[in-house]
Amino acid sequence: MLISMLKETGALLEGHFLLSSGKHSDVYIQCAKLLMYPERAEKAIGLIVDKLKGVDFDIVVGPAIGGIIVSYEIGRQAGKPSIFVERENGNMRLRRGFTIEKGQKVLIAEDVVTTGKSSYEAIKVVEELGGEVVGIACLVDRSKEKIMYPVYYGVKIEANIYDSENCSLCKMNRSIVKPGSR
Ligand SMILES: [Zn+2]
């Protein structure tokens, strides 16, 4: 169901894409295209909240910008506060008077988890303040490597990612699209 919601909103595209990293992929995901519809966002994130039954957390933290809406909606549905970390001079930190208290159980929320890099940056901020991270919630889990925390995902999507000089899709002469440029 989430897959079809992602496809019908254009949040999930299949083809041959040039990613911002310079790599090529057969899948492109832009969750903002689904989250722009509040009713769909409510339903999609409700699927994650269902999986969080039995998970004890006090607060949700979404790395800006991608995690903010997911974090907010999980917080709304679960009745928990939602805050975000954001980048300042390259480093993730809590601003705006947001705080984490020692021993607070924290759920990290993301739109997409790929390498877990932004989640790990958020986790570092939380743990330095004494918070205890209980897991990562995300709409789409496209990770290949093992993520070091429990991941509660809406849907898991396998994508093939290629180096530009060794791309199967290039070899098939499939024309490449740079998403967001159209
Ligand atoms: Zn290619």
UniProtKB/TrEMBL annotation:
Cross-referenced Pfam families: Pribosyltran
**Swiss-Prot/TrEMBL catalytic activity:** orotidine 5'-phosphate + diphosphate = orotate + 5-phospho-alpha-D-ribose 1-diphosphate
Q: The Phosphoribosyltransferase domain covers which part of the protein?
A: 54-147
Pathway assignment reads: Pyrimidine metabolism; UMP biosynthesis via de novo pathway; UMP from orotate: step 1/2
What is this protein's record name? Orotate phosphoribosyltransferase
Q: How does it assemble?
A: Homodimer.
What are the binding positions for orotate in this chain?
T114, R142
Give the protein's function: Catalyzes the transfer of a ribosyl phosphate group from 5-phosphoribose 1-diphosphate to orotate, leading to the formation of orotidine monophosphate (OMP).
Reported EC number(s) for this entry are 2.4.2.10
What this protein needs as a cofactor is: Mg(2+)
Q: Name one GO molecular function term.
A: orotate phosphoribosyltransferase activity
Taxonomically, the superkingdom here is: Bacteria
Q: Which residues bind 5-phospho-alpha-D-ribose 1-diphosphate?
A: E110, D111, V112, V113, T114, T115, G116, K117, S118
Q: Which gene encodes it?
A: pyrE
InterPro entries to which the protein is assigned, alphabetical: OPRT (IPR023031), Orotate_PRibTrfase_bac (IPR006273), PRTase-like (IPR029057), PRTase_dom (IPR000836)
Q: Which family does it belong to?
A: Belongs to the purine/pyrimidine phosphoribosyltransferase family. PyrE subfamily.
Q: Give me any GO biological process, just one.
A: 'de novo' UMP biosynthetic process
- State the PANTHER family in the record: OROTATE PHOSPHORIBOSYLTRANSFERASE, URIDINE 5'-MONOPHOSPHATE SYNTHASE
Q: Which UniProt keywords apply?
A: Glycosyltransferase, Magnesium, Pyrimidine biosynthesis, Transferase
